[in-house]
Design a protein that fits this description.
The protein is an all-alpha fold. The chain has one domain. Helices cover 81% and strands 0% of the residues. It has four helices and no strands. Helix 2 packs antiparallel against helix 3.
Amino acid sequence: MSPGSLIDALSPHTRVATALVPFLAALVARLLFGKNRFTRAILSLSTMWFAINVLLAPFSVGLRQEILHLLFLFR
């Protein structure tokens, strides 16, 4: 089973949850522990994770194939 087929098997709600839960957890940690280096780091990482999952998520088979073709062009 390839990672792509594992992601395809997830429901849309699960995909949104995998993008949103780490971000919300980082926000809660920021509220609980205050503004320090650790909470800034996890908030930054979770924001990047959210952006990658939401903005770069392939929504269709055609778009997924175009992204793969772009990756092969730059190799």
